Amino acid sequence: MNDSGEKGAPRGATAPHEGSQERGRVRVVIENVTPRVDGGQFPIKRVIGEAVEVEADVFADGHDRVAAQLLHRHEQTSEWTSVPMQPLGNDRWRARFTVDTLGRYFYTVQGWVDHYATWQRDLARKRAAGQDVSVDLLRAQELQPQPDPAIVLEHDTVLQVTVDRERARFSSWYELFPRSASNIAGKHGTFRDCIARLPYIAEMGFDILYLPPIHPIGTSKRKGPNNASDARSGDPGSPWGIGGAEGGHKAIHPELGSLKDLQDLITAAQSRGMELALDIAFQCSPDHPYVREHPEWFRKRPDGTIQYAENPPKRYQDIYPFDFETDAWRALWEELCSVVEHWAEQGIRIFRVDNPHTKPFGLWQWLIARIKRAYPETIFLSEAFTRPKVMYRLAKVGFTQSYTYFAWRNTRAEIESYFTELTQTPVREFFRPNLWPNTPDILPEHLQFGGRPAFVARAALAATLGASYGIYGPAFELLEHEAREPGSEEYRDSEKYQLRHWDLKRPDSLKDFLARLNRIRRDNRALQSDWSLRFHATDNELLVCYSKSTEDRSNIVLAVVNLDPRFPQSGWLTLDLAALGLDPDTSYQVHDLLSGARFLWRGARNYIALDPHHSPAHVFVVRHRARTEKDFDYFL
Amino acid sequence: MNDSGEKGAPRGATAPHEGSQERGRVRVVIENVTPRVDGGQFPIKRVIGEAVEVEADVFADGHDRVAAQLLHRHEQTSEWTSVPMQPLGNDRWRARFTVDTLGRYFYTVQGWVDHYATWQRDLARKRAAGQDVSVDLLRAQELQPQPDPAIVLEHDTVLQVTVDRERARFSSWYELFPRSASNIAGKHGTFRDCIARLPYIAEMGFDILYLPPIHPIGTSKRKGPNNASDARSGDPGSPWGIGGAEGGHKAIHPELGSLKDLQDLITAAQSRGMELALDIAFQCSPDHPYVREHPEWFRKRPDGTIQYAENPPKRYQDIYPFDFETDAWRALWEELCSVVEHWAEQGIRIFRVDNPHTKPFGLWQWLIARIKRAYPETIFLSEAFTRPKVMYRLAKVGFTQSYTYFAWRNTRAEIESYFTELTQTPVREFFRPNLWPNTPDILPEHLQFGGRPAFVARAALAATLGASYGIYGPAFELLEHEAREPGSEEYRDSEKYQLRHWDLKRPDSLKDFLARLNRIRRDNRALQSDWSLRFHATDNELLVCYSKSTEDRSNIVLAVVNLDPRFPQSGWLTLDLAALGLDPDTSYQVHDLLSGARFLWRGARNYIALDPHHSPAHVFVVRHRARTEKDFDYFL
User: Fold this and answer.
1) From CA A602, how far away is CA A606, in angstroms rounded?
2) Cβ(B562)–Cβ(B569) under 8 Å?
3) Which of B8, B9, B302 lies at the smallest CB-CB distance from A138?
4) Which is more confident, B140 or B270?
5) Contact between A61 and B31 using a beta-carbon 8 Å cutoff
6) Per-residue DSSP letters for A193-212?
7) Chain B interface, best mutation among A61, A151, A329, A332, by max B CB count within 10 A
8) B445-465 and B511-523 are packed helices; what angle lies between their axes, rounded to 10 degrees?
9) Nearest residue in chain B measured CA to CA from A128
10) A624: phi > 0 → left, psi -120 to 50 → alpha, else beta; which?
11) Residues 394..433 of A with a Cβ closer than 8 Å to B: which?
12) Eight-class DSSP state of B4
């Protein structure tokens, strides 16, 4: 097999008629193999245990029967496994395989004119018509069930699957600034404080604890509270202003503790079922050692100074971006990759990557592939908030998960169209959405003005629309909603620039609600993946209704959310019963896992009323059949 | 430029991250270049004078401006012409070029980060914000409007256009059996009789005269009238039973005349603006010289006889198909190609190919490319009535025009969905439909039972829905409608097996109607292409309404057809005025080119009534503006 699968690129690239000249006896053609990203240029994504359902158009000239098979193999074996493909009609064929090993799989399709099957079919037809088949029977000897290799066509592209662990698909992130983790107001938090905070986070049920950059912070042009351009002495600066006298991207900010403390945090988190995620932010403070040691990695201005970050007229003089067009780009890429390798060697297997869309796509493709070759379980979350094609490209080149536009999708129409695009189109083959109602950079207007009902509704949406979601806490669970100024999405007194002291025991905390949501997510496999998402009609635009179900429909979750944080909203749902596998003539039970309430429904149309001040959401589990009189022993 | 355009295949095929490793300074990416057939595996089609509008997603990381250009060249030059692409928003770019030479064009896209434009934009923003730009101005010296080649990305695929002459897009075919062209009943017609018939055909306005195979006809197993299995002496046999003692595919059936007669027919047709099309039917009668000279080109049955054509339980013992899986396939291909070359050398430039779907796709791709290299003006019409993907594949591999399912598309829903697929989806890039209401093999039930109104409606539909259409005459204009038996689409007493004598002067002939239709087609450029086709809503399912217009909307044709051959139908149209470029508040005139009637309409909703026994169709030309009082000199 002419396998360029190692490169993940279209192979062959033979001119069709030249190929035909060489292999004129091949009569079958193969078209439109799916799934496939950009013609096979990029791998599709799966997690262990998932299936890859492969389809292709396979046909030949004339009346002869054709046959097709799917070939697949893990990168660590050279042996292909074949699966016969089944015809679906209209020349379309299908087969599936399941991935059970981390790393990369390859798959492709073969087809051929099946003379043996053709002969069998024709023989049966002739016999049915009472024709003499004596000569046909003689052909049996020259025909073989196995095809002549000279008439077998291999598809000219070997396609790829990247196989991740399950957490790549199903994860609940909690973002925490260690600097504010101290129980003592005004004291800089440490990794040890984070360890002390773990029970609180574990009780809420999150399984990834993500820390903003933990490296030394520059002092030159350091920003003060609320992004003030001149920090006062004692201001901690932004963790994203990476690099100081104490070191750069491989060093730890001394005020957070030691590498040993970090290791202890990793271990302590693991013991509570949580995994630590670090931040990869490839940029430097003016004090970063790279600036001195590798001036060739930065752009010089004509006056000899180093170009700071800018998006005119905005200036970020505390940040020096790398110049990725430097002639020294190879050394730069190697060094950046070594940063990730360094933390991988410390045991970190999840990275949230800061602004990947301001670094070349080629860098990420190369770096992620290299890291995953050594550590195939690694998860990279792309923190790109930019234009859709840029976000998708980052996912194509290798990011495991991606931030989304969820924070700005508030109306039913917005939610339905966006999540249908993400979960019901080929985008889902490469883009795994991660839904954040807030981040340290994004306090959406909905949360600024919607009060507690908005927080509850947005958390419920994030946790049920997205198999992966995250919150920036404790700001989220403590309902932090003050913006720096009107029209801004920046938090007032943001932890990005100062320490904060949080009252975790506030009675209005959403802690218990988040714990319930995460418990529901763990208990209901339907919520642990996104592809089954279906929206259902409602006659009130402020009510959004959707379901997720397992493939065997043994678990169906139906969510209804009132998008209006002020007023009670009511209306009629029209459920797509076929999508839910429900019989229109049989009662079924919906059990609200948030309130505990149960309702008996029948048919597609059902009434809903949600008071946001009581609960803006139902998260129902659907039980196929309610008990009826027929369940009594004596009924029959 | 790494140009594998000569092969029309994806070039490069470099693994993405390997490419990145080699060209790490390239930050731009190019995705989703259109138009493109199967990832660039096949050429798109155009005729001389048409535009290729190329779009691509071009973007880079970060905030920098990018630029993109389209490159194109004709195959006969190695010089690329570049056209700057314009941004359409959402990272999409567009440019167009016009093709003006027969043969093949190549096109691709380049993109780069435009540092000069970025600098200009940023400078303007800084100035607008009142910032000091003195250092920025110094950068002007190091920046050049021309990009550094090291940061320019070429798309990894060179795409192809096949450029045909205009008749490939706009053609009116008339199929005629020369055997029945004699004015004397019972006498075998000749090419000379065809010459005598030319004025009749020219008066109807057809521009292609297509003759079924003109070769010697086998006598072994010859079929008699109505496909009787034993021909009587004197039965002429089927013209598709090719090959006899007098020769094979390069010979002329003696009863039709000589090669000189054929040459005269070609010349005489040309003098009347018509072009002769011949039939290519790659199959043999048992008497074909190939059977004796090249038994290796046929499949032997185990009893030593040659395998006749069959589709069990049907047998076609008068036909020997070629065995395209023969080891001698190269010689067979060469010989078949030489058949087409032979007739091309006689001046034939249009071939209607019989059942191409029973010969390998690879053969056609190779053969058509080879013929068109020598004779780029050649037109190949694919007579494939088979499954959709097979028909589309034949168009992809090179057929210029294709028969369609038109004969079986009778309801409004069928017509709208099928012709929307053909004209408004990427299918149109490679598939040029040719609409036949009848053929010698297809007398649709609609014509069997619909009477004259059905013939008129089907002709009007074919001639206005399709820039290319054809009829099998004189059966069509003489309303021939008797099937061989109930449930059959075969003509009774078909010319395929016997001579017919046609009364061309019958008063009910559709000759004048067809002449009017063809005149309308010639006079209205809107009808000479298919891409502008738009359907308009009607409130009566038996009325179908559609329009075609030139790109500048200087010519708009609006057709309304009553699909019911029995009863008058009326209803309201709701025209898509925007698609027609009509102002909703200004009157416009619709002028029925069939009846001569004129109507003044205003707005989208207009009433239509069509009595099929009077005329089942309107073919309106739309005149943008009716005269009003404002047209008088004294009005102002």
Assistant:
1) 8
2) yes
3) B302
4) B270
5) no
6) HHHHHHHHHHHHT--EEE--
7) A61
8) 20
9) B313
10) alpha
11) 397
12) -
Contacts of A14 in chain B (CB under 8 A): 7, 9
What mean pLDDT do residues A176-192 have? 97
User: pLDDT digits over A226-269, tens only?
Assistant: 999 888 999 999 999 999 999 999 999 999 999 999 999 999 99
In this complex, the residue of A121, A128, A325 whose CB is nearest that of residue B25 is: A325
Is A489 exposed, middle or buried, given 0-12, 13-18 or 19+ CB atoms closer than 10 A?
A: middle
**Of B184, B311, B259, the residue nearest A129 (C-alpha):** B311
d(CA B407, CA B434): 11
Whether the pLDDT of residue B141 is over 70: the answer is yes
Separation between Cα atoms, residue A275 and residue A173, nearest integer Å: 9
**pLDDT value, residue A8:** 32
Are B26 and A362 a contacting pair at CB < 8 A? yes
User: What is d(CA B269, CA B259) in angstroms, rounded to the nearest whole number?
Assistant: 15
Secondary structure string (H, E, C) spanning B314-371:
EEECCCEECCCCCCCHHHHHHHHHHHHHHHHHCCCCEEEEECHHHCCHHHHHHHHHHH
The alpha-carbon gap from B116 to the nearest alpha carbon of chain A, in Å, equals 15
DSSP state letter for B296: G
Q: Chain A contact for B589, CB < 8 A?
A: no
CB atoms < 10 A from the CB of A57, how many?
22
pLDDT cut 70: percent of chain A above it: 96
Q: Which residue has the tokens 């009509």?
A: B582
Q: What is the pLDDT of residue B410?
A: 97
pLDDT value of position B17? 36
Kindly give, in sequence order, each residue whose CB lies less than 8 Å from that of residue B587, ignoring residues fewer than 6 positions away: B600, B601, B602, B625, B626, B628
Q: Chain B partners of A60 at a C-beta cutoff of 8 Å?
A: 360
* CB pair distance less than 8 Å for A24 and B362: yes
Yes or no, beta carbons of A325 and B62 under 8 Å apart: no
Q: Is A87 on the interface with B (CB under 8 A)?
A: no
CA distance A349 to A379: 6
Name the token pair of B154: 């070429």
Contacts of B25 in chain A (CB under 8 A): 324-327, 329
Query: Nearest CA to A29 among B390, B436, B585?
Result: B390
Nearest CA in chain A to B327: A25
User: What gap in Å lies between CA B548 and CA A49, rounded to an integer?
Assistant: 53
Q: What is the mean pLDDT of residues B487-491?
A: 96
| Greatest CA separation for chain B | 102
Using the Cβ of A314 and the Cβ atoms of chain B, whether some distance falls under 8 Å is answered with: no
Strand B28-34 to A598-602 pairing: unpaired
Interface A–B counts its CB contacts (< 8 A) at: 223
CA-based Rg of chain A, rounded to a whole angstrom? Answer: 29
Q: Pairing relation of β-strands A171-175 and A468-472?
A: parallel
Asked if A397's CB is within 8 angstroms of B16's CB, the reply is: yes
Mean of pLDDT values over B404-433: 98
Whether residue B218 contacts residue B243, with contact meaning beta carbons closer than 8 Å, is answered with yes
CA nearest to B168, candidates B467, B551, B532 = B467
For residue B325, the chain A residues in CB contact (below 8 A) are 25, 27, 113, 151
From chain B, pick out residues whose CB is under 8 angstroms from the CB of A121.
312
CA distance A307 to A284: 11
**Is B220 in CB contact (< 8 Å) with chain A?**
no
Scanning the structure block, which residue is given the tokens 């003005």? A449
Q: B130: nearest CA in chain A?
A: A313
CA distances from B473 to A573, B210, B510, B615 (A): 60, 10, 11, 21
Whether B383 is a known active-site residue: answer: yes
Instruction: Please measure the distance between the N-terminal and C-terminal CA atoms of chain A and give it in whole angstroms.
Output: 63
* pLDDT-derived band at B18, boundaries 50, 70, 90: very low
